[in-house]
Structure formats: C-alpha cells, structure tokens
Amino acid sequence: MPIVFIPAQLKSLTGGVSQVEMEADNVRQVIEQLDQQFPGIRDRLCDGDELARTLQVSVDSSMGARGLRTKVGDAREVHFLPVIGGG
Amino acid sequence: MAKTVLVTTTINGESTEFLCKPRESLLEILRDTLGMTGSKEGCNNGNCGACTVLIDGLPVDSCLVLGVEVEGVEITTIEGIADVGQLDPVQDCFLDGAALQCGICTPGFIVTARALLDKKPDADEQTIRFDLSGNLCRCTGYDKIVRAIQAVQESN
Amino acid sequence: MSSGNGNYRVLGTRPRRHDGAEKVTGSAIYANDVQLPGLLTGFVLRSPHPHARIRSIDTSEAEATEGVFAVISGKDFPEVADKVADLGEGSVNLSYLSGNVMAKGKVLYKGHAVAAVAAVNIHVAEEAASKIKIDYEVLPSVTWVLDAMADDAPLLHENLFTDHMGEKDEKPSNTAVHMHFEKGNIEEGFAAADVIVEREFKTATVHQGYIEPHVSVADWTTSGRLKIWTATQGAFTARQQTAEVLQIPISDVVVTPCEIGGGFGGKIAVYLEPVTALLSKKSGRPVRISMTRAGVFEGTGPTPGSFMRVKIGATSDGKLVAGEAWLAYDAGAYPGGMIGPGCMCVFSCYDIEHAVVDGYDVCMNKPHTQAYRAPGATQVAFACEQVVDEIAEQLGICKLEIRQLNAAKEGMRRVDGPVYPRIGLVECLDAVAQSDHWKSPLEGENRGRGIAAGFWFGCGLKSSVSASVNHDGTVNLTEGSPDIGGTRTSIAMQLAEVLGIDTFDVIPQVVDTDSVGYTDVTGGSRVTFATGLAAYEAGLDLQRQMAGRAADLWECSADDISVVEGEFKGPDKSASFKELAQELFKDGEPLVARASVAPDCSTNGFAVHIADVEVDPETGKVTILRYTAIQDAGKAIHPSYVEGQMQGGAVQGIGWALNEEYFFNDNDTMDNASFLDYRMPTMLDVPMIDTIIVEVANPDHPYGVRGVGEPPIVPPPAAIANAISEATTTRFFELPMSPPKVWKGLSETS
C-alpha cells in the first residue's frame, strides 16, 4: 500500500491533496486510480500510453524506474521526478 | 600551388626523410605522414601541450612548428622516450602513481617531464609546476602528475 | 546484499591499470589515431551569426574544388519527427538533436553547424568550406537568461510553449519548462525564523574542457552497415542517436568506442557521427572529422549559466527551517537543460523542513547545454552554501557546526520528495573536523578558509558483461563502458576479488556495440558501481559453473563443493581457480559467464571541501594555498582512481570558481574560444589537492561502492567563495570570481 506523492505542480488538479495512499501493483494502476480521483492528472503524467518522457518514478529509495509497468506493490512511497542525466 | 619540400631530420635517433607542403605543421607530419600518432592534437594553437616533442632537447608544441623548420634537428617524440620494450622511469612512475586518467595529455607530459628532469634533476615542486604549466590536464588536477615526477627524483 | 569494509584481497589495492603501458607510450588508439585505407578528412562549417534564417546555401564551388569528395548541409539529413527518445540516461527530442547536428532553415547560435566538407586533407577541406556561400537573414539574438525570459525577447522556437508539468502556456516563449517543488509550509517556516538571508547569484557558461576534441570516423561504404569509431562516453547511445538522426535501423550501425580523452558529460550527445556518416556515404570513402578547438567551444555542449535567488531562514540555535529557491538555467539553443537536478540539489545537503523551489529551463542563442559532471549541482551549491555561511556569520555559529547540525541523514526527505537511505554526509563533516587541514590554523593577511558541501545522485542504469575462462586460468572480461579514468581496472578488480584471482589474471576489454550486451553511458558516476556489479555477478555465475563441473570431475554432489578464497574444495579434492580451469579445458563446454544489470538506485555521493585562499587586493588574484577534498566513496575499489576523481573534479571546480567563463560580446558571440583565453587551471595555478576518502558502505552494492566521479565538482566554487569572504569580508555572488571582478568588488567595499 504505497503512499503516492502528488507532484506540487499538479496540486491544482487535486484541490491541494499532496499524498494518496492506495493499493496498486504498478505505476500504470497508480496513475489510473489517481485519474479516477483527480480527472485530468493522467494526461499530465503520461505521453500517450507511456510515462511522460521527462519523468521518472522513484519507488522508495530507487531512482530511475521509467515505465508504467514499474512495480509498486510492496513499496512505501512513490514519487514522480524529473529525469536526470549525469555527466 | 606551393612547392613540396623534402626535409631530412632525425627522429628518435633515426635519420628520417619526408615530403611536406610549407603550411604543414610538424604535428601533422608526425601523425599523418609518418604515422606516429603518439603526439596528440588538443588545440592546434600551442595552448595545451598535448603535442609536445623535444627539438634538440627542448620541449616545443609541435603544432606550432612547421615541417620545413625541422631540417637537420634532433626530434624526440613520446615513441622515442624509452628504448624498445622498456619504459622510462617517468613512464613507470606515472603508472605506479596513477598520474593519468584519460591519458590524452600523458604523452605531452612525459616528454616535457623527461626534458625537465634531464636539465633540472633536483627541481623543487614550484619549478616542476612552472616548467610544466604549458601542459594542460583536465582529468587529474595535476596532483598525481607532480608526485610521479617527484617519485622519479626520489628513485635516483 | 551484504557490504562492509571487510578484508579484501584485491579491493583497496593500487595495481597499475591494464591499459597503462599503451597510454604512457602513446600507442593507445584514440579516435584521431584510427587509420583506414582511403581515409578522408572532414571539416565543419559553422554559423558566424548567433541567430539567423538561412535563405540559401550554395555548395557548388566547394564541390568543384580539386581534392574535395563530398559536401553536405542540412538538406542532406532526413526529416526527423518531433518526438522524444529515451537515451538510457536522460531523454532527447530527436528533431532538436538533428537540428543541432546540422542546422535546417535557421541557425540558433554562433558555431551552429551548417555544412561539412570531406577532402584529401584538412587544408583542402577548410579552403573548400570557405567557398560555401550562405545567405543569412540575421535576426536579433539573446544570451542572458533573464533577457531570454522577457516577454519581448527574440524567440528561438516559434512552437515552444512553457511546460508546467504537462500543461502548456498559450503564448510561445523561450522558457521551455517550469518546475516547482514544495515541502512543508514555507510561510510557516519563514515565520519561525530568527534570521533570514536572501541573495541573488549569477554564473557564467563554462565548458567541460576535455583536452581531446570530439573526433569521429565513419565508414559507410561497403556492406550497407555504418561503421563508426568515435570518442564517446557511450557507444550504445551514440549508435542510437546516430541511427535516429539518419533514420536507419540501429542494427545497421556498429560503434566502436575508441580510447577517449575526457568527456565529463560532454561526449554523450552526438555531433560528428551523423555528419561523417553522410560524408562517407556520399564520397564512397571513410571520413574522419576532428573538431577544431574553437568548434568544441562554440559547437558542443557547455554547462548552463544561471541566475539564482536563494533565501534561507534559521532559528537562533542554527537550525535551518525554511528554504526558497528561484532558479533560471540556460538551456542554450534547444530545450533540455539541467534545471531538474538543479532544483533537486539546491537544498539536498540540509534537513530543511519547509522549502519551495521554482526552476526554469530557458532557451537562448548559445550552444545547447550538456551535462558537466553533476550537471546543475555546482551552480546551486555556489548559492546555497554561501547563504548557509552568512546565516552562520549572523548567528555567530561555527561554519562547520551549522552544517553538522543540519546535515542530511538517512530518513531525510529531499524537497523533490524521496527519502535518503543510508548516506555519508555526517561522516564527511566529521572527517573535516578531524582533518589536519581543519585543525591547522590559517594565519596571515588577506587569507581565509571556506568549506562547502555537495551532493550528486549517482545512478545505476544498464550494464552487460561477459567473462570467458582461458585454460591458463586467466579470464577475458568483455564490457561496454568506455574507460575514461581507469574503470576497466576497477571493474576487473571486482571480478578478480569475487573469483579469488589476481587483478592481472583478468583481461578487461571495452568493445563495440556488436560485441557486448547493451550498456549505458560512462557517466553519472555509474561505471565502477554498475558495470562492477555486472562483473561481480558474472563472477558468481562462473563460480557456479565451475563448481558444477568440479562436482562432475570429482564425482560428488555440487552441494559438496565450496569456494573459499578462490579455491574449489570438494570432500576429498581441491583445486585453485587456475588448476581447475586447466583441468576443465580438456573436455566439456567452455566456461563462459554473463551478467546484465539495471540497478534502479542512486548511490548518493556526498563531498565536503576545505579551501584556504589568499587574496591580493591589488590585483584581485586569488591563490589557493591549501585544498582538501573529502568524499564518501562507499568503498574505494582502487583508491588512486577515487583520489584522482576527487582531485580532478576539485580542480575543474577551482577553474569554474576563479576564471572560466564564456565571454559573450555585444554581438552575442564568444570572444574567447581557445585555451589561451578560456583559461583553465594549469599545474601552476593549484597546489596539491589532499584527499580523505570516507567509506559509508552503499547498501545496494556487494562491496558498498558509491559513484565518485561527479560529487567533487559541486563544492569548489562555494568553498572558495566562502574562503574569499573570510579573507576579505567581501562576498562574491557571481562566477567566475576572476581577478578583475574580485579587484572591483574589493575596491567598492573598501
């Protein structure tokens, strides 16, 4: 049952809600559930049928998972972050 | 059309002849005409030292020397710093001291350091830094290069 | 996985690197050393204008020149869809990438590639290029980030609208992205503060400054496959980018990563590969281009300049309670700069309960920015660390103690959201306190000491290796991570450690894209960590295979075989790795192992630097008297190479702090595109860089490895600014703190 953190820029869609606890297997389900609760949020997080190319998902202390299939079932926290490249 | 010039010189102890146009640099001759790619091109205008060779024992940026200028001189390049199958103490100390990371500046440093140690075997740190300030390195921060040169001094 | 600083045989030793002899004798093959029959030399023609429409290009005279074999321009490149491709590390919009490789229709910065020539030698190529006639319609230009954000700024892209996480503004803009992060309640935070410091900062564009320019060789003449030899930090990303720009299948392309003369993030994007490919196709000959140094400065990817406003509030006991940052970073000619990591790193070293960060990615008529070692972090550290110092001054608290009081620890939430696992900043600060440098008093006029902390994520990403046993007991290790700093050895050491054999019994090779599984770039501080992890796992695979075969040989069960320090022990027989390898060669399958990894974690590298400076008020020159770099490496596999990363990053940071900048004139073009005037530190400009390696094991790696390559460039400008402030009581808020600026600043305050 991870806590999904809503990116600060999307709080206008959630009426200020910044965290949602939910049951989900993967990021796709997380986004589907978020969109049910806060219509329109899916289009902000996705490019078509994929996670927006400018975003990555952090699941607990992992960084860099980038697919909607990323598993979140046992996770404590899920965050949507900008993609970062190193040098 | 500029004349092609025949130049006779000595490179790493061997008499060498090559043809060149007046506008070609020694660096171009070494790399493209003679296939000696140990001297590297970093800037082509004398600011980085990656192309350093010795001419009559003096370090010079070979990108600033024209091929036609080396008639009759003695050139030492990185390829000739050590005998065949051997490493010069400077090369050994660079390896033991991890004084290189990407290695592109390394031939230039080794040639310059060799000349420095031949002329000023007891050079102090400041002298080492001053005399090698014409060789740029972007990877190491220079610390281990200085220490490698000092290690050569200590082993003598 | 367990980790910890146990007693290792190989890890922690300092063997010579496997490619060392080639590198010190000049026989290592860099891209400019590759020799192919019939090789032509190419030259890139670049825009003289910072912003212009291309009305026409006439290459006929150039093509007719004797000795010229091919001329290309933007029209020779296929149209590329406006889509984003995943490069493994970061993503890129392909039409921007293609446009940057060679301009189509419009040039966006001075130095933008517009055409290229392949000829018998560089002189003929350059002369022919000068005969290419281009009719430009010059447009107004802009090169300062705040000017580029203004409503009336010249627009680079008509169809670029500011993106606020998926919602776009209606009016076109140079601001490509706006990011926003929040933590806690910022009003509450500042209301509780006893002292608040707010400052504005500016940093200039700087370049990675690798000594080897970009060089690529392409042979697209036989068999239909495009063969590339290039200086790249990632052969696989070079393959993908090149294939995308040329619109050919990636399987048609094979990239050999040559030995590379420095990268630091600047040799990840492709510039020359597609250009040499088309020249080769058109000419029917292989073609090499080695970029001129001016071309490198003006035509590749420096790091963002910036404008930053940072405000921090603290209570009187020194606890930081609120932080606000407004950050505008150059993206250069195309969107896709480093603003994300800038936002995530600005407060990353400190546990601040309430924070707000706004970041902007802004286009302007400068070369498109690229990563430079911890991209985006150095700029924000310059800002945040000085504000923290000022708060300490106002509260009368020791500058080390205020950092220790607020240091990020395991469990702390960053402003962008994630919580830190086990990290080592506290241990680094403790090491400062214990260090000889910190304990040695600094005496004398105009002298001062400064410290600063820095953070970089350090990523995992994908690596593949294969390992095959030779019957003399050595192991060939094939991997795909270009070796910029000795990593082939640190990876070989990890395989040697797990197998219980000698470092030099592992023979590592960095190979081309046909010969090893997909491997992400050498960058992001990931190679010793991730490719090392793959080597470790391949070693375990090899051991399992050999144990199973030993069981057959010795007629016992595989469960009865144990491996102790490389020795295979059965119920009544045993053999060393070498002995078993020799024995198993006689019959049965060859021993080949493989591993591929994609660790999804950050290795979280923290660094703290101490700088002692002396400032000459008459000239503004700042001399570094003493410098110590302290960093958490997790586990130093080869300590000399870890130290080398720390020292190299520190000196790059010193150059960034004290002198390096792109100097743009009134025509918005760079005045100092050479090593003479883009003045990087020489050996004479810096002292020895002392290093202290802290080891707080990374729980995500069997040996505890953390990435070390990037954190060391983050603290230096801040540490030096703090030192200058101590020395002179004047603070400098602009980079570089070069002599004219320091002199002027001191004159104004005195």
Features:
heterotrimer; A: about 90 residues; alpha+beta; Ubiquitin-like (UB roll); four-stranded mixed beta sheet; 6 strands; B: about 160 residues; DNA polymerase, domain 1; five-stranded mixed beta sheet; 5 helices; globular
Rg of chain C, please?
27 Å
Q: Level of helix content of chain C?
A: 25-40%
| Whole-number total of structural domains of chain C | 3
In the predicted model, the low-confidence regions of chain A spanning at least 5 consecutive residues are: none
CATH architecture of the largest domain in chain C: 2-Layer Sandwich
> How large, in whole angstroms, is the Cα Rg of chain A?
12 Å
Which structural class is indicated by helix and strand composition of chain A?
alpha+beta
What is the name of the CATH architecture of chain A?
A: Roll
Query: Structural class given helices, strands, pairing of chain C?
Result: alpha+beta
Q: Give the low-pLDDT segments of chain C.
A: 1-5
Number of strands of chain C: 31
Neighbour order of strands in the largest sheet of chain A: 2-1-6-5
The rough form of chain C would be described as: globular
- So how many helices of chain A? 3
Task: State the name of the first-level CATH class of chain A.
Answer: Alpha Beta
Please, what is the oligomeric state? heterotrimer
State the distance separating the first and last CA atoms of chain A.
35 Å
Overview of this protein structure:
- The complex is a heterotrimer of chains A (87), B (156) and C (750).
- Chain A is α+β, with helices and mostly antiparallel strands and 87 residues long.
- Chain A has one domain (3-82): Ubiquitin-like (UB roll), CATH 3.10.20.30.
- Chain A is 23% helix and 24% strand.
- Chain A contains three helices and six strands; from the N terminus they run βαβααββββ.
- In chain A, strand 3 (46-47) and strand 4 form a beta hairpin.
- The radius of gyration of chain A is 12 Å and the shape is globular.
- Chain A starts with a strand and ends in a 5-residue tail after the last strand.
- In chain A, 46% of the residues are buried.
- Chain B has two domains: 5-80, Beta-grasp domain (Ubiquitin-like (UB roll), Roll); 89-155, [2Fe-2S]-binding domain (DNA polymerase, domain 1, Orthogonal Bundle).
- Chain B has helices at 26-33, 89-96, 106-119, 125-131, 143-155; strands at 5-11, 14-20, 52-55, 58-61, 74-76.
- Chain B has a five-stranded mixed sheet, sandwiched between helices.
- In chain B, strand 1 (5-11) and strand 2 form a beta hairpin.
- Chain B starts with a strand and ends with a helix.
- Chain B is of the alpha+beta class.
- With 750 residues, chain C is an alpha+beta fold.
- Chain C has three domains: 20-28 and 460-597, Aldehyde Oxidoreductase, domain 4 (2-Layer Sandwich); 34-139 and 211-262 and 267-299, Aldehyde Oxidoreductase, domain 3 (Alpha-Beta Complex), CATH 3.90.1170.50; 306-458 and 602-749, Aldehyde oxidase/xanthine dehydrogenase, molybdopterin binding domain (Aldehyde Oxidoreductase, domain 4).
- Chain C is built from 20 helices and 31 strands.
- In chain C, the strands form eight sheets. Chain C has a seven-stranded mixed sheet.
- Chain C is globular, with a radius of gyration of 27 Å.
- The termini of chain C are far apart.
- The interface between A and C is large, with 31 and 54 residues.
